[in-house]
Amino acid sequence: MDVTDSTTRVRMMLADTAGADGATISAADGLLRTFHGDPSVNWPALYAEVTQRAAGVAPAGSPYWTQGRPLSVLAFWGSDARARLAADQNTPAATLALLAADPDQGVRQWAAAPRRPTVLAAPVPVPPVPGPAPRKGSRWLPAVLASLATAVVAGLIGAGLWSAGVQNGYTTTVVDQEAREATTHEELTGQYELKTLKRRVCGNNKDYLSCVNQHVTLYNTVCLSKDLNGLAKATCSDLKKFIHDVKVRYRRCGAGCRTRADANGLWGWAYLRTVPLVASVSNNDALPEITHDERCTFVLGPIKLGTCPR
After folding, report:
1. Rg of the chain's alpha carbons, rounded to an integer?
2. What is the pTM of this model?
3. Contact 107/83 with Cβ under 8 angstroms?
4. Residue 62 to residue 70: CA distance in whole angstroms
5. Three-state DSSP class for 232?
6. What is the Cα–Cα distance from 78 to 72, expressed in whole angstroms?
7. Are 180 and 271 in contact (CB under 8 A)?
8. Is residue 262 over pLDDT 70?
9. Mind listing the pLDDT tens digit for each residue in 238-250?
10. What angle do the packed helices 25-33 and 6-16 form, to 10 degrees?
11. Which of 134, 135, 133, 74 is nearest to 108 (CA)?
């Protein structure tokens, strides 16, 4: 059973593709992108390893990194290896665009250098070798003409079938990384709300002044020196008005005055408790969808060439 972890598999893949050239770099990058959707890959550790071994590794940012993930195996190459690929005449345009933004000036110069067109040597003409002149009444001449006509017809049919197969070709979009919304976590906002408890500050037939002072203590405890939300501020405002009103009544009532319950058998306020407020905060770990196109170049019945999922 394969117990190799994802980070080790990426490390082995990077070792296998270390010698990629202009003709194979696209395949190496496509293989790398298959690991983008695996959250267990330790990209920072892999990057730290190569910076210890290779000279001139590009910083973990633009143009070779995005959102903590490498866009190309070039992110793990030294400057000499990147310059070699920038000078390779077979390096594709997409890779050259990354190399053109490389932090190393030498790599950028190679990437910006004009591509040398491939020049094919002209074929050396070979003088025809004269064959024997056909004799009058030769019997094989009709057979040769018939074979030639058959070959021409077969060639025309083959060309038509090839053209039809090419016209049936299509492009398929392959998803290398699925899009993912950002996750969230909860953080304290610094504000508080008030929760009403079942237990009351005072009841019926209690010492009036003592009950007034207990309400003042409640107000000072939950309403002062705290950042309250709007509803809590309104509650504290109501409590402050209640304290003012009962102080006015006490001045008329005098010493020895006692509380008197209302029709519901209650007097005064229930106890209040401050509760810290929390809010959901994004972890900024959303992932965009990453795709690339693959071409099915020929389709003719069961005969298919290229990437042909349909």
Report:
1. 42
2. 0.39
3. yes
4. 10
5. helix
6. 13
7. no
8. yes
9. 999 999 999 999 9
10. 180
11. 74
CB atoms within 10 A of CB 304: 17
* Per-residue CA distances from 163 to 23, 151, 157, 159, 228 (Å): 27, 18, 10, 6, 76
Q: Kindly provide the residue ranges of all beta strands, DSSP E only, lying in 136-241, ordered along the sequence.
A: 170-177, 184-200
Counting Cα atoms < 13 Å in the Cβ hemisphere of 150 gives 6
Produce one character per residue of 174-197: b if its CB has 16 or more CB atoms within 10 Å, e if not. eebbeeeeeeeeeeeeebbebeee
Percent composition of the chain: helix, strand, coil (DSSP 3-state, to 5): 40, 20, 40
Q: How far apart are CA 6 and CA 12, in angstroms?
A: 10
How are beta strands 65-66 and 290-300 bridged, if at all? Answer: unpaired
Amino acid at 104: D
* Residue type for position 102: D
Q: Which of 267, 140, 147, 142 is nearest to 215 (CA)?
A: 267
Cβ-Cβ contacts under 8 Å for 232 (sequence gap 6 or more): 192, 193, 194, 274
Lookup: tokens for 154 = 């077969």
Whose structure tokens read 């009841």?
A: 203
Residues 6+ apart with CB under 8 A from 61: none
Distance, CA of 48 to CA of 65 (rounded, Å): 14
Looking at 139-143, 155-159, 181-185, 297-301, which range is the least confident one? 139-143
Give me the residue label for tokens 């893949």: 13
* Residue 134 structure tokens: 């056909």
pLDDT single digits (tens) 221-230: 999 988 999 9
Q: What is the DSSP letter of 201?
A: S
Question: How crowded is the C-beta side of 226, counted as CA atoms within 13 Å?
Answer: 22
Q: What CA–CA distance (Å, rounded) separates 87 from 110?
A: 5
